[in-house]
């Protein structure tokens, strides 16, 4: 059953000096509990699409609904969780206070036991009284994930969340995210540049064309779960990654032709 429904969505940015046609006639259905990755050439509109799903940007035309509600309604209920490449934590607040922050904005003060429970679940239970500058990049991203998860979001939108982490931390975070997803069955839309990351994590991989971004291909991931973590490759993994790589190359080539 369709949960996130994106219908004929286009978006053009208007600046003082120019207009940038970022997305063109996007149709995409995502089911409840699905893990979908968006990949595509740099500047093809992945973050823009994610922002329209999160109601951070208004499309020029078309619509996005989640469980039949407009994304603006869902956003008002604070039921959209965002995780960005930078953790965007408030440096003067402790980890615990950062996790509580968005709930406080919504007029709810989460109980300490609730904060402890989510922090334990995401593996930072021992750091609630620490400040962001005392944490590693991976730990800061865990705090950012807790801050989103404590809202019990209907969807989790993740924009290259591990893009700034070193390779080892990134792989650990991928394993952790899969565990969290399997236990909570949240619907996740995940933007990444990394084919191996998309192939390891997702149920589906949507490949976008060069700008203006369109859906170029939509792959159901053939790799059975549980999958090999830490970059370990099976024949099936490398075959699927080659297919995705070819698709990305086509998108890149199209960009050069259009330029
Ligand atoms: N606020 C804005 N005003 C004008 N143009 C913008 C704005 N934000 C993004 N763009 C342009 O829209 C296009 C899509 O940008 P977007 O960040 O969504 O792409 P992306 O696929 O996420 O890129 P990357 O992979 O490099 O992060 C790009 O050409 C970008 O320069």
UniProtKB/TrEMBL annotation:
One of its GO terms (molecular function) is ATP binding. The keyword Transport applies. This is ABC transporter ATP-binding protein. InterPro entries: AAA+_ATPase, ABC_transporter-like_ATP-bd, ABC_transporter-like_CS, ABC_transporter_ATP-bind, P-loop_NTPase. It comes from the Bacteria. Keywords: ATP-binding, Nucleotide-binding, Transport. Residues 4-235 form the ABC transporter domain. It comes from Leucobacter muris.
């Amino acid at each position: 059953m369709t949960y996130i429904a994106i219908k004929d969505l286009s978006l053009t940015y208007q600046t003082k000096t120019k207009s940038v046609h970022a997305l063109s006639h996007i149709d995409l259905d995502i089911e409840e509990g699905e893990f979908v990755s968006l990949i595509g050439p740099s500047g093809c509109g992945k973050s823009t699409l994610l922002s329209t799903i999160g109601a951070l940007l208004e499309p020029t035309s078309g619509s996005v609904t989640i469980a039949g509600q407009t994304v603006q309604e869902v956003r008002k209920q604070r039921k959209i969780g965002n995780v960005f490449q930078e953790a965007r934590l408030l440096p003067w607040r402790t980890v615990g206070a950062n996790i509580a922050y968005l709930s406080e904005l919504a007029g709810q003060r989460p109980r300490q036991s609730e904060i402890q429970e989510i922090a334990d679940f995401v593996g930072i239970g021992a750091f609630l009284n620490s400040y962001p500058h005392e944490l590693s990049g991976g730990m800061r991203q865990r705090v950012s994930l807790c801050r989103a998860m404590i809202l019990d979001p209907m969807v989790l939108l993740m924009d290259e969340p591990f893009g700034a982490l070193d390779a080892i931390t990134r792989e650990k975070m991928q394993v952790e995210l899969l565990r969290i997803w399997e236990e909570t069955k949240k619907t996740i839309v995940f933007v990444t540049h990394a084919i191996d990351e998309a192939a390891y994590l997702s149920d589906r991989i949507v490949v976008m064309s060069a700008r203006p971004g369109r859906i170029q291909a939509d792959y159901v991931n053939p790799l059975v779960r549980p999958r090999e973590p830490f970059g370990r490759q099976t024949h099936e993994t490398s075959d699927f990654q080659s297919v995705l790589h070819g698709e990305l190359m086509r998108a890149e080539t199209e960009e050069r032709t259009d330029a």
